[in-house]
Amino acid sequence: MIRTLILAALLATPALATDGPVFMGFGSHTPVEYDLVIPKGTVLRHVYDVTAATPGKRNPGFETAARFINSHVGNGVALRDVAVAVVIHGPAIAELTRAPVYAARNNGATNASQAMVEEMLAKGVRFVVCGQAANAMGVKKADLLPGVELAISASSAHAILQAQGYTLNPF
Amino acid sequence: MIRAALLSLMLLSAPVLAQSREGFVAGPVLPDVGPIAPVDSDLPLPKGTKFKIDFDIAAKATPGTLSRQIETAARTLNMHVAAGVPKENVQIVLIFHGPSAADLLKPEVYAARNDGKANGSMEAIRKLIGAGVEFYLCGQTAAGQKITKADLLPGVKMSLSAITAHAVYQQRGYTLNPF
Hints:
The complex is a heterodimer. Chain A has helices at residues 2-12, 60-73, 99-105, 114-122, 131-137, 154-163, and strands at 44-50, 82-88, 126-130, 149-151, 167-168.
């Protein structure tokens, strides 16, 4: 019984998660005694690739991008020096649609990622949707949350962003 | 009767290449591979933009069908040229390792290894190579799967390893496509 409680506690609180400083309530990070220094003046431009949708919970692919910002700003990098983009090209596109569109496509359900995405957009995170996949899914530009960008394709977006100095996150 | 026979012959001869998908149209470079959807894009392509894209391909296509990732490479070529980028400014390399190596095999080698089935990607590969797209097979994979250079479709090249090819092409300014 006690063991179960301990297990539950472990599951509920991932090791000393720190909230913020940019996003509160999501994208938490843990303090690290790190060896890889961030040289002064470093500008981080980083791009994530997300395909999987996670109905009913915050999309962990999006949340990882928030964690990237929280963890670096929390360790002294200025927010303006952390630019993050998320390229989306599969079912996850649905989680960037406006509430009525999402509900209509998901039996009236609410989009558990919407509030997080809106906060991230407000802080300058770029969400870039694959136009080819959106077309195949019947998602139009007007269906997307305000501020979400549409690209010719995900391949196109990745090529452009990497050419602009964004590093590709490999997982 | 004749029309039906001709139509079915046409359909049979191009079964996987010309799948029509609502909202997708034939592209300008390879009209029968990698159909494209027009997009009202927010991500501008400044004049002079050059694309050098490196695709990593590990998954093997279902025998007899076109590899979806090879089709993605064709679509990438088609849609950027359709968007106004000159064809010579869209350079693509596909780097194969693991099970995907099978999709680069000549018909008789492919058939011998796949219950007599046809290599459904062969025509698309021929057309892509004709359009200047490069195909590399990981030499370590080839050794592991007992594939020799003579087993490969014309124009397919071999590298020391897939890792080597990715490193060399990224040093040459290619960006890595993550899927």
